[in-house]
Design a protein that fits this description.
The chain is of the alpha+beta class.
Length: about 850
């Protein structure tokens, strides 16, 4: 008789030697008997993965982070860093998490009731339960929102909560984040990265999936909209925001258009997004910008990222906003001092998840107590703003102050006590983290997430993301130097695999079959258009540099030893802004190195690659991870001015640009995005060809000039296959100007422009061609009807000017439309 082998639940060596005192409070050491096996299974799985792959598990996770494009920026830094993720998840049993869930839902109910009262009846202040200064003193109190409530639905749709687990296993709330649910995207990305690395390990551990939460979140926002299939957009402050990568990933995952304030406009108290097909109605926004920045006409007039007149649309109830303006007033640490009382007053309940004990110095007795107990407490700004005595507005442990700092802080607190809070110093539990293939304890906090579902009920993500401290102290909730994150896995202790398998691993509601890429906002079209232009401009400049360098070190180089041809190419780079006049007279190698790397010149290759990366950041939700890896590489190393080194760098850049072009061609579906991307490339290629031909016109009959033209247009092989003779003027010009089969010819670019523009949506219903299409056809006409003998410099200059005019017409038609002063014409596509 065959007996099924029992699973080996013996702790692996890594966890068996885990150095933690049980009394200190560790999540693994304190795990319940039915949860500990999940820890051991995770540890064994990771160590087995290391043995199988032959590399550290951290390296495997790092590869997935690169593939997913996971990155973040520390406060004050411009460059992004790879997201730091521990391979070892933080594991919480389902029973323990159920208590956390109940506490979070209870807290969400309370916060909704408090914010409703603050901007509504104001009874909490009138009845003495809240001091008026607690509300009015907050920089996040939105006075304009008093009396303005959501037409239907709640103030809060989604928010984040920072949790700490104490030495005895008790969970407490460190703070609420109602303004922005930062970290919700990283929680999703952590799970995706860990799942890809570990295969079925999380399923074997019976870890609950998080995808249903995002489906619920989307349904909760859609519930408040006034249409059956509402359009929900994610409002971002832009690519310079610290959490922009997270926002882009969320928008892509949820299927929300990623928009900035300048993409949106309000007309007749309704919100629209500017698209290439005209204005399209937006029913809801998930905002990732502060209330003060939402509407410069109502809140802060200095805001350049908001939407003028958005307040009127909110007041009318024609748009849903998650979350409602002003809810962030509850984020102030000073509010934590009153939360226990509010639970009793508004809910008649005791808090399931208590706050960290807090004392607001805006009350005389509390101020005296905090000053007397300074060494026992953490001192924090009461309203989150920078205050005297607390550098950079960060909390500070009183016991860590020297004599002068202590005196300075106490004096500041005496002058303006309302600006300060005292909070108990929290001792954090630890959790195993896998560092250099060794399990070590790290202090942690957990950011949990709560959202309303399609029924309007609160739901809690079964997990979240943990922040593991490198120092053992956490005075801020932001990721700091040396900190790492970890996935939070809630594990079921019953082997009910059937019910677990029924839980969706992707967004649950199967959408109706459709084709196309949805709307294309005007700004996104603009960025795609210029992304294509920057790529083509960079490639053309590198080809010119290669031609100039090759002439100096290769016997059979196209430019040969004709100094006039080389001089014209250098002048061309000056006209393109790749070189300054002073750099142009330097030796060839030095001039070429400057054209490659001098970012002070806007047309240099270095500056163009910076523009490519900057523009790509605005399109982060549209590009693949393979594309990101190539686009993010730095310029090749260029040691000195040696021509051979520079030539190798130029060739590597051409290969890199070719790889990017191939990825874009293969991964962009045929649609408006692809049209604008390729339109930019075709227009830039056509303009550059006209300018190059005109620059070399005086040398056009020389073999060197003809060879350069063929090289720059990558048409040497085509010419040699067609003409078994040396380059001759008329055949070369015909190939480069008029041959519609040559993808580098002027005629091919014009045909492509006509084709792309004709495929774009029109604004009117009369089916008449619009200005961009008429102009593109006018450019194509002589190229398809005149022989090469009819072309001269004047005709070439005319085509160049028409191409530049076409660029302006495309911008006017597709990128700068539907200003507020315009009223939607009858028949325009207001969908």
């Amino acid at each position: 008789m065959l007996v099924a082998a029992k699973p080996d639940l013996r702790p692996p060596k890594g966890l068996a030697a885990y150095p933690v005192d049980v009394g200190a409070g560790d999540l693994y050491r304190d795990a319940a008997p039915d949860v500990a096996p999940a820890w051991q299974q995770a540890a064994r799985g990771l160590l087995a993965l290391r043995e199988e792959a032959g590399v550290a598990v951290q390296e495997l996770v790092g590869r997935q982070i690169l593939d997913l494009g996971m990155s973040f920026r520390l406060t004050g830094e411009d460059e992004e860093r790879d997201w730091p993720l521990s391979p070892m998840p933080l594991i919480v049993g389902a029973q323990e998490w159920a208590q956390v869930e109940r506490g979070l839902v209870q807290r969400a109910r309370l916060l909704e009731a408090v914010v409703d009262d603050i901007y509504g009846e104001g009874s909490l202040v009138a009845d003495g339960h809240l001091p008026a200064a607690l509300i009015a003193g907050s920089r996040y109190f939105a006075r304009s929102m008093v009396g303005v409530a959501p037409r239907s639905g709640p103030h809060i749709h989604v928010y984040a909560v920072d949790l700490a687990r104490g030495p005895r296993g008790q969970w407490r709330v460190l703070g609420d984040r109602l303004r922005l649910a930062n970290g919700i995207g990283y929680a999703l990305e952590n799970r995706l990265a860990l799942s890809r690395v570990t295969g079925g390990l999380l399923t074997e551990m019976r870890a609950r999936r998080v995808a249903q939460f995002f489906s619920d979140l989307r349904g909760g926002i859609a519930r408040e909209c006034q249409r059956e299939n509402p359009r929900i957009a994610l409002l971002t402050p832009g690519r310079f925001n610290q959490s922009y990568p997270e926002q882009a990933h969320l928008a892509r995952y949820l299927g929300f258009p990623l928009v900035e304030g300048r993409d949106l406009t309000v007309s007749d108290d309704r919100l629209y997004v500017r698209t290439i097909a005209g204005p399209k109605r937006v029913d809801a926004l998930w905002r990732w910008i502060d209330t003060n920045a939402l509407d410069p006409l109502r809140f802060d007039a200095r805001s350049a990222i908001g939407v003028p007149d958005l307040f009127e649309a909110l007041e009318r109830g024609s748009v849903t906003l998650a979350n409602w303006p002003g809810v962030e007033v509850l984020e102030a640490p000073a509010f934590a001092a009153f939360m226990p009382r509010l639970f009793s007053v508004l809910l008649g309940e005791e808090p399931i998840l208590p706050n960290v004990a807090t004392w607001w110095c805006g009350q005389p007795r509390e101020a005296q107590d905090v000053a007397a107990r300074l060494d026992e407490l953490m001192i924090t700004p009461a309203f989150g703003a920078r205050v005297d005595g607390l550098p950079e507005g960060r909390p500070l442990a009183g016991r860590g102050l020297d004599k002068d700092q202590r005196a300075h802080l106490l004096a500041a607190m005496a002058r303006r006590p309302v600006d300060y809070c005292g909070q108990e110093i929290v001792t954090l539990s630890t959790t195993p983290a896998l560092i250099d293939d060794v399990f070590v304890p790290r202090a942690f906090t957990v950011r949990a997430f709560v959202a309303r579902n399609a029924a309007g009920e609160w739901t809690v993500m079964p997990g979240g993301f943990a922040r593991l401290s490198s120092s053992g102290e956490m005075v801020t909730t932001m990721m700091g130097e040396g900190d790492i994150s970890a996935d939070v896995c809630v594990v079921d202790t019953k082997a009910d695999l059937a019910s677990l398998a029924a839980t969706p691993s992707v967004l649950s509601a199967a959408p109706a079959v459709r084709r196309g890429g949805g709307i294309l906002a005007s700004q996104a079209a603009d960025n795609l258009f210029w992304f294509g232009r920057y790529m083509e401009r960079a490639e053309t400049t590198v080809r010119v540099i290669r031609a100039v360098l090759g002439s100096s070190i290769e016997v059979d180089a196209a430019a040969g030893h004709n100094p006039e041809v080389i001089a014209r190419l250098v002048d061309l780079m000056v006209s393109w802004g790749a070189l300054s006049r002073e750099e142009a007279v330097e030796p060839i190698a030095q001039a070429c190195r400057a054209a490659l790397s001098d970012t002070a010149m806007n047309g240099s290759v270095g500056a163009l690659f910076a523009a490519i990366r900057a523009t790509a950041l605005t399109l982060r939700d549209r590009f693949t991870t393979d594309f990101w890896r190539i686009a993010s590489r730095p310029l090749p190393a260029m040691d000195g001015h040696r021509p051979g080194v520079l030539l190798r760098a130029a060739r590597e850049l051409i290969e890199r640009l070719s790889a990017l072009s191939g990825l874009l061609a293969e991964n962009f579906t045929l649609g408006p995005s692809r049209h604008f991307l390729d339109m930019g490339r075709r227009l830039e290629r056509a303009v550059a060809l006209c300018q190059t031909l005109r620059a070399l016109a005086a040398q056009i009959d020389t073999a060197e000039a003809l060879g350069v033209l063929l090289d720059l247009s990558d048409s040497q092989i085509t010419y040699r296959a067609r003409y078994l003779a040396a380059p001759s003027t008329a055949p070369v010009l015909d190939l480069l100007l008029l041959d519609p089969a040559n993808p580098r010819s002027l005629a091919f670019q014009a045909e492509a422009l006509v084709s792309h523009i004709a495929a774009l949506p029109a604004l009117g219903e009369d089916n008449l061609p619009e200005a961009p299409l008429l102009e593109a056809r006018a450019i194509l006409a002589p190229l398809s009807s005149q022989p090469v003998a009819a072309w001269d410099l004047a005709r070439l200059a005319d085509v160049e000017q028409r191409l530049l005019a076409l660029s302006d017409t495309i911008s006017t038609r597709y990128f700068l439309q539907f200003e507020k002063a315009d009223s939607p014409a009858k028949g325009s596509l207001l969908a």
